[in-house]
Write a structure and sequence with these properties.
Layout (H helix, E strand, L loop, with lengths): L1 H15 L4 H31 L3 H14 L4 H13 L3 H14 L4 H13 L3 H14 L4 H13 L3 H10 L1 H4 L3 H14 L2 H13 L5 H14 L2 H15 L4 H13 L3 H14 L4 H14 L2 H15 L3 H13 L3 H14 L5 H11 L4 H9 L5 H13 L7 H4 L5
Length: 404
């Protein structure tokens, strides 16, 4: 009996001692694993809510995940993104800073910090964040593009282009990188290079209507008229009918490639469809001038005077037309007005030419009128063209954004 009592006491003593250290550690690890699992489930739910725009629900859900497992940097990153969308910028900054504390080489945290600085108007700080993101991950195109766009915003267009072209080996098949490079060249005024990169972007799959339209305008300004016509044809096949602007561009490309009548007819059609579109009358006027059709040139000038008499082409077209109709005094008045818009326009040789022309016999005048576009007129007007470097005496591209 005594032995049995001793045995029972020993057993109780062992039972009252509680779990061992190893048992406690195992229990803690099990709880931590459960917290991680539950936190991951909450984070997945928060991401789904975030992606469908349920930001208020998403912030509650991700905070539950963080409370369960605060050491996971991805949870703080998602919280920062949600706060960024809710325009709670200071709180978002705190979350991204926490990500840095937990994971110092996080490219995403650097990237979103860059976005924050740009929201605050701090482009220099944003650029450094984007560069940090690139250092952490040099194979993510978004970081390179963000850095290039920020350089452009700081006026450093050459550096932006250099950055993209230097990184091209990693992104040579990425259409967005080629598109951005093309747009940066267009901002510099280099239409030829811009068109080349935009064409590459389309070949790589970035074949949306906006990119194609930008390529068309870039090719036109670069003087690549045959390529422009080809792109317009592809645009029509992919997206259907052309807008009035693209139709006018097609017409001018046809004229530039020797298909003058087709080009004239297209632009004439647009003036009938959109009679209040000043750009359409300007385009038709220059084509009529090129063809020596001074009656139509007069009609274009008069139409422009009704739409907007302040446009330089209104007086230029009516002045040139009056000159060829023998209305010297009216021509002088109209061309003087045109000169006020363009100091490079020297009207004195034109007026002198007109006075001399109409002081001769009717027979001589008739011959000169028939040959004006190739003989007498070209001696004076071509001299002005060469001095200004453009067929259009008034620089339409600078003064009138309506004409591409």
């Amino acid at each position: 009996m005594l032995k049995l009592s001793v045995l029972l006491l020993a057993t109780c003593a062992v039972g009252c001692a509680g779990p061992s250290k190893a048992g406690l550690e195992a229990r803690a690890n099990a709880h931590e694993r459960m917290d991680i699992v539950n936190a991951d489930l909450a984070a997945q739910q928060a991401m789904q809510q975030f992606e469908v725009g349920q930001f208020d629900d998403a912030i509650v859900t991700i905070e539950n995940a963080i409370n369960r497992y605060p050491k996971h940097a991805e949870y703080h990153l998602l919280k920062g993104r949600i706060l960024l969308e809710r325009h709670q910028l200071d709180l978002a900054h705190q979350s991204f800073t926490t990500v840095h504390e937990l994971e110092s080489n996080s490219p995403e945290a650097n990237y979103f910090l860059g976005i924050l600085h740009q929201r605050w108007g701090e482009d220099v700080e944003a650029l450094q964040c984007y560069k940090n993101a690139m250092e952490c991950d040099d194979e993510h195109p978004q970081y390179v593009m963000a850095a290039a766009e920020t350089l452009s915003a700081l006026g450093q267009h050459d550096d932006a282009i250099s950055l993209l072209e230097t990184s091209a080996k990693n992104f040579q098949h990425h259409p967005a990188v080629a598109s951005l490079t093309g747009h940066l060249y267009l901002q510099k005024g280099d239409d030829a290079s811009g068109a080349s990169y935009l064409a590459d972007s389309i070949l790589l799959g970035n074949n949306d209507a906006e990119t194609s339209m930008t390529l068309i305008i870039a090719q036109f300004h670069a003087g690549h008229y045959a390529d422009c016509l080809m792109t317009i044809k592809q645009y029509e096949t992919a997206f259907g009918s052309l807008s009035p602007l693209l139709t006018r561009t097609k017409g001018k490309c046809l004229v530039a490639t020797g298909q003058v009548i087709k080009g004239r007819d297209l632009c004439l059609e647009i003036t009938r469809e959109t009679p209040n579109d000043a750009g359409a009358w300007i385009d038709l006027g220059y084509i009529a001038w090129e063809m020596g059709d001074y009656e139509r040139l007069r009609d274009c000038g008069e139409a422009l005077q009704k739409i907007n008499a302040q446009l330089p082409e209104s007086s230029l077209f009516t002045g040139i037309s009056a000159l060829h109709n023998g209305e010297i005094e009216r021509a002088a008045r109209e061309l003087a007005t045109a000169k006020s818009y363009n100091e490079n326009l020297d009207i004195e040789p034109l007026i002198a030419f007109g006075r001399d022309k109409y002081s001769k016999t009717n027979a001589e005048t008739a011959i000169q009128q028939n040959m004006a576009s190739k003989t007498a007129e070209s001696d004076t007007e071509q001299q002005i063209d060469e001095s200004s470097g453009t067929r259009e005496i008034v620089n339409v591209e600078q003064l009138t954004p309506l004409t591409p």
